[in-house]
Amino acid sequence: MEQTLAVARQLYRRMYLIRTAEDAIVKRYHENDMKTPMHMSMGAEAIAAAVCLAIGPDSLCVSSYRSHGTYLARTLETDRFFAELYGKCGGTADGRAGSMHLSAPEQGYLGGSAIVASVIPVATGAAFSLKRLGRDAVVAVFFGDGAIDEGSFWESLNIACAWRLPVLFVCEDNGFAVHTPAGVRHGYASITDIVSRFRISAAETSTTDASLLHAATQELLADMRAAQRPGFIRMHYYRYLEHVGVNEDFAAGYRPRDEYEEWLAVDPVTTQRTRLLEAGVAEDWVAEMERGIDAQVAHSIELAVAAPFPDECILFRDVMTNENVDIS
Ligand SMILES: Cc1ncc(C[n+]2csc(CCOP(=O)(O)OP(=O)(O)O)c2C)c(N)n1
Ligand SMILES: [Mg+2]
Fold first, then answer.
1. pTM here?
2. What CATH number is given to the structural domain containing 89?
3. Atom 18 of ligand 1 has which residue's CA nearest to it?
4. I want to staple 112 with a disulfide (CB 3.0 to 4.6 A). Which of 63, 66, 86, 170 is the partner?
5. Can you tell me the distance from the alpha carbon of 24 to that of 13, in angstroms, rounded to the nearest whole number?
6. Phi/psi class of residue 171: alpha, beta or left (left: φ > 0; alpha: ψ in -120 to 50)?
7. 89-139: per-residue pLDDT in tens?
């Protein structure tokens, strides 16, 4: 019971952090000081929180460009996060990467990428290295339902199954690739059915309840470990905001507002808060934790706004070239 409560608290801490950080982005993006496109995680908080917590600190994770949730669930830090969004020194890449290429390799978050599905082979390679090193850990790779339309997903899945690699494929399924629904992109009814034909542990969820997602991930990890094979989990969620940007997009006509309202009624952050209170966690404890996170986010934004822009001379740092690049 105590352990379940501890997990429930940790899940809520992560989800509240993601929501608060993104609420702040929504509030301030129009100021046009955050010089980066935004692919928001709002609506998907439970997935990042549950999977990052379940895989544990020794495991690695990699994500798509929709990476705020993964980054924050994994690192719990916001100074480097906001500095990066503001394009400033002290950001995860000193302001050169932006929202789509966040990373914290020292904390096991290898990073995200703007190229759909490109991180899947990278994660598979990282899993190969974990296996060669004999580590008891996995690599969780987060990608959207659009990424399963790419060959690199299938090639990675195949080799991971053939070589029994410890990779957990996490499909964050919002039913759309930009505005194109899955139904017109897929020549099959269920990706989970297809993937299940491989030598893999496979599961599917459609709940926004982080505790249930955490339990489902743990079960899958246990199965992967017992069978010494990779895992695949398709987790349905609803993207609250537009594909890229911080606004609603129901007026665009490709999805109805009613649908959003149905999902909002089981909002992951609110659901987890209710769960905590029902389990007997004191309202004071919850409020105190929320205040701490509110203050953390506000302070990180202040620091980011005040930080200097990076010097031009770091522009080509970490860029692979043998040439002396003249940027004058
Ligand atoms: C290889 C590649 N093709 C096309 C694009 C353009 N593009 C950007 S996001 C996106 C849709 C991806 O959908 P999904 O994987 O479901 O992720 P979601 O945005 O729904 O989280 C596309 C096609 C891209 N970035 N990379
Ligand atoms: Mg999608």
1. 0.96
2. 3.40.50.970
3. 144
4. 63
5. 16
6. beta
7. 999 999 999 999 999 999 999 999 999 999 999 999 999 999 999 999 999
